[in-house]
Amino acid sequence: MRALAAELGEDEDLWGMAGLLHDIDAEITNADLAVHTKEAARILAGQGLPGELVDAVRLHNEEAHPGEKRATRFQYALAAGETVTGLITATALVYPDKKLASVQPKSVVKRMKEKAFARSVNREIILECEKIGIELPRFVEISLRAMQGISGELGL
Question: How much is the pLDDT for 31?
Answer without folding.
Answer: 83
